[in-house]
């Protein structure tokens, strides 16, 4: 897994490349909690290059969501691949997260 | 077979070889250079010396010959101006031979009938014989002196003349050279006679042989036409010319030398002696007054003897020097390698696990060796610490592992493990498997009867793996048993568990859960799916159905969620199959997923409703798929077949 981090205006965009599984979810958790500790309120996770996510990874997504939600920030996901969209649908996460088709739309969503 | 290579040799050997090679090379170059330069200088000196020697000897002989020449020149004027009587003439001649040591003999030969009117011959001759002076009259019928060269040539040439060497038959019977001077009548200038002085070739030879040139060097004299006049080899004298020797011995070079010599030139040339067969140099120079030429031969081995001697000494010194250097290198190398060998032995001892071996104090060693010693001591200490830590860690790990083993047993203990679980019932058969990826896992299954006909069954999956997931699983299972009351609906059970799980769930752990209650009398299943994988129903006719209805997010996330309820009907021999994503997301060595499609195909092809067989077939197929890869997630399957027996 690789995480590309960038800041567009006041939005942190994290692009995840590859697989999020039990061996590396800690890295993503670390990156997310660092931004939250810096009082970043707007986070977009771009999943267009993310091939797989395990339940451990889903838990990290969820933790981030809860923390941002608690400070009334925006926590958007975008670009979910079909198989991941399906996992999200089965687990009901599509009803928790705000999910956009691509990064551009997600950024517009924050504006 | 062990090959001989420099690489396998020690430092001592390698250093010795390389240093000595370079030293020997430098020494050899020096020696060659020295020999070359010295030879050049020596040759220059030799040429000069040879020239000086030859020229001085030539001059010496010339000086003597000049003195000899003066005698008949003086006598000539006396003989022209005075008419001696025979007695007075004899007295004068005897005195001349007596007083001049270099003169062998002297003759005054008159023209026929010019001294005594009646005498054809008159040629008184005085010569040395031992210590006395002897007298002879040269003219007689057998020795008509008028026709001899010493008389005839000056007469014809009308001037003084040095004869070639010849054997004098008339007088003394020795080999000699004569200087002949014609004298005349004052009145008419007609020839009166010839006055001569002779020098013995023996005398000339003595002078030449006195020229000492090294051990086997020598000098020789040739006449104006190349005849050998003096030579250390007596058989050459008068018998050979320089040209006949060149011819006999096939030495064209000698012919050239001979030509140059009789042309009154001087030179310094390389030459091989005919007599001694030695290589060397020849210097020659002319004697102007006689037209002769003197040659001096210098053998090169004697000439270069000093140089060879010097080189031999240098070579000896060089060898001694190299040997000394060799000993020095060996000594230094040993001093250097001895502590290294000691240290190597010690590290070997450390290498086999003996960390307490004492490292001796390495006295008189170089800074680097001492540093190496210190490093090894440090390494030894670090290794000791490391091994101690390793032992502690291993002990701690073993403790944790044994605790995990116990935890595994406890976890397996809290789920029903006895199959068939209800052997007395003919309407329901059920089989389940839970294989954690590690010792303990986050999957769970459970089943129990609420009353005589209603059976509650569930499969759940806690996010993550290992100990945290297993604790969360244990809580979930406990809550399930606690919250399930007799007439409660499935969604309410899920809601109650959810509320309790959300309490103090800082890490957002969650559980996907499928909870169903089958009424064995009707075959109706009421269920609630909280974000769990869709279960399958394998119908009696082997058609596979997927129950895609879900009722909300996994439990443990949000407290205030109302879950819905779903329903389906089971007919006779229908089998419901629940599983966790450890099946569909099982990974092979290349990280390919097992997938829903493969599960669907497997279930479609199975055509059997025996729960144990279905469950084990899936487990075996997943195991087959995963192959060598580590198990990525816990695997749980629960199959339930409804037989509709009252």
Q: Could you outline the blueprint of secondary structure elements for this entry?
A:
The complex is a heterodimer of chains A (111) and B (646).
Chain A lengths: L1 E7 L2 E10 L4 H13 L4 E12 L1 H16 L3 E5 L3 H10 L6 E3 L2 H8 L1
Parallel strand pairs in A: 2-3, 3-4, 4-5
Antiparallel strand pairs in A: 1-2
Helix pairs in contact in A: 1-2
Chain B lengths: L10 H71 L4 H14 L5 E6 L13 E6 L2 E6 L11 H9 L3 E2 L3 E2 L7 E10 L6 E10 H9 L8 E5 L5 E3 L11 H7 L3 H11 L4 E6 L6 E9 L4 E8 H4 L1 H47 L15 H48 L13 E8 L7 E7 L4 E9 L3 H18 L6 H13 L8 E9 L4 E7 L5 E3 L5 E3 L19 E4 L4 E6 L1 H4 L11 H11 L4 H16 L8 E8 L4
Antiparallel strand pairs in B: 1-2, 1-7, 2-3, 4-6, 5-6, 6-7, 8-9, 8-12, 10-11, 11-12, 13-22, 14-15, 15-16, 16-17, 17-20, 18-19, 18-21, 21-22
Helix pairs in contact in B: 1-8, 5-6, 8-9, 10-11, 13-14
- CATH H-level superfamily title of chain A: STAS domain
Order of the strands making up the biggest sheet of chain A: 1-2-3-4-5
Name the beta content range of chain A.
25-35%
CATH class value of chain A: Alpha Beta
pLDDT < 50 runs, ≥5 residues of chain B = 1-6
Helix percent of chain A reads: 40-55%
Low-confidence stretches of chain A: none
Query: What is the number of helical segments of chain A per DSSP (H or I, 4+ residues)?
Result: 4
Named at the architecture level, the CATH assignment of chain A is 2-Layer Sandwich
Could you tell me the number of beta strands of chain A?
5
CATH structural class of the largest domain in chain B: Alpha Beta
Give the rounded overall mean pLDDT of chain B. Answer: 87
Tell me the strand percentage band of chain B. Answer: 15-25%
The domain count of chain A comes to 1
């Amino acid at each position: 897994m690789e995480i590309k981090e960038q800041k567009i205006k006041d939005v942190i965009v994290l692009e995840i490349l590859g697989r999020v599984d039990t061996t590396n979810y800690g890295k993503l958790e670390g990156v997310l909690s660092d931004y939250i500790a810096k009082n970043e309120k707007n986070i977009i996770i771009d999943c267009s290059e993310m091939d797989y996510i395990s339940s451990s990874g889903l838990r990290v997504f969820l933790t981030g969501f809860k923390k941002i939600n608690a400070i009334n920030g925006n926590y958007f996901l975008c670009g979910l691949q079909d198989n991941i969209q399906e996992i999200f649908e089965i687990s009901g996460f599509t009803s928790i997260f705000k999910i956009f088709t691509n990064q551009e739309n997600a950024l517009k969503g924050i504006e | 077979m062990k090959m001989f290579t420099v690489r396998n040799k020690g430092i001592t050997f390698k250093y010795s070889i390389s240093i000595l090679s370079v030293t020997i090379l430098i020494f050899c170059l020096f020696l060659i250079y020295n020999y070359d330069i010295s030879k050049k200088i020596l040759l220059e000196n030799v040429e000069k010396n040879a020239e000086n020697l030859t020229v001085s000897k030539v001059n010496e002989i010339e000086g003597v010959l000049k003195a000899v020449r003066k005698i008949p020149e003086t006598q000539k004027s006396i003989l022209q101006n005075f008419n001696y009587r025979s007695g007075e003439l004899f007295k004068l001649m005897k005195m001349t031979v007596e007083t001049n040591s270099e003169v062998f003999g002297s003759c005054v030969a008159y023209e026929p009938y010019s001294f005594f009117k009646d005498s054809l011959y008159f040629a008184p001759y005085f010569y040395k014989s031992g210590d006395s002076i002897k007298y002879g009259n040269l003219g007689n019928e057998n020795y008509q002196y008028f026709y001899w060269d010493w008389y005839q040539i000056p007469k014809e040439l009308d001037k003084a003349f040095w004869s070639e060497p010849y054997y004098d038959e008339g007088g003394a019977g020795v080999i000699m050279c004569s200087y002949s001077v014609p004298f005349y009548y004052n009145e008419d200038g007609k020839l009166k006679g010839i006055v001569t002085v002779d020098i013995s070739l023996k005398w000339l030879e003595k002078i030449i042989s006195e020229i000492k040139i090294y051990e086997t060097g020598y000098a020789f004299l040739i006449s104006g036409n190349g005849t050998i006049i003096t030579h250390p080899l007596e058989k050459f004298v008068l018998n050979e010319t320089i040209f006949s020797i060149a011819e006999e011995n096939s030495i064209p070079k000698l012919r050239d030398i001979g030509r140059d010599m009789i042309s009154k030139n001087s030179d310094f040339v390389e030459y091989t002696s005919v007599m001694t067969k030695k290589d060397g140099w020849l210097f020659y120079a002319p004697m102007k007054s006689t037209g002769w030429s003197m040659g001096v031969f210098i053998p090169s081995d004697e000439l270069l003897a000093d140089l060879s001697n010097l080189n031999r000494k240098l070579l000896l010194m060089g060898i001694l020097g190299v040997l000394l250097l060799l000993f020095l290198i060996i000594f230094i190398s040993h001093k250097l390698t001895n502590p290294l060998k000691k240290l190597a032995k010690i590290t070997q001892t450390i290498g086999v696990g003996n960390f307490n071996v004492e490292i001796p104090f390495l006295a008189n060693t170089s800074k680097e060796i001492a540093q190496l010693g210190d490093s090894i001591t440090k390494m030894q200490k670090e290794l000791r610490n490391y091994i101690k830590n390793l032992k502690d860690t291993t002990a701690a790990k073993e403790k944790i592992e044994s605790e995990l083993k116990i935890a595994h047993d406890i976890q397996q203990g809290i789920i029903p493990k006895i199959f068939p679980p209800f052997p007395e019932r003919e309407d329901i058969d059920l089989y389940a498997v839970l294989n954690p990826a590690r010792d303990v896992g986050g999957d769970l299954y459970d089943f129990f009867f609420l009353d005589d006909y209603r059976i509650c069954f569930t499969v759940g999956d806690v996010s993550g793996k290992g100990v945290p997931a297993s604790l969360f699983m244990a809580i979930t299972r406990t809550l399930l048993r606690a919250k399930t009351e007799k007439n409660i609906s499935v969604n309410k059970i899920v809601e109650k568990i959810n509320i309790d799980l959300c309490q103090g769930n800082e890490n957002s752990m969650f559980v996907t859960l499928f909870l169903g209650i089958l009424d064995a009398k009707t075959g109706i299943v009421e269920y609630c799916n909280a974000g769990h994988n869709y279960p399958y129903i394998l119908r009696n006719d082997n058609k596979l159905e997927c129950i895609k209805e879900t009722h909300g997010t996994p439990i443990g996330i949000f407290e205030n969620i109302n879950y819905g309820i779903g329903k389906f009907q089971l007919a006779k021999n229908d089998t419901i199959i629940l599983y966790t994503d450890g099946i569909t997301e099982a990974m092979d060595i290349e990280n390919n997923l097992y997938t829903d499609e493969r599960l669907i195909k497997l279930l479609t092809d199975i055509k059997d409703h025996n729960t144990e067989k279905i469950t084990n077939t899936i487990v075996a197929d997943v195991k087959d798929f995963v192959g060598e890869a580590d198990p990525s997630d816990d695997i749980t399957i629960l199959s339930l077949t409804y037989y509709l027996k009252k």
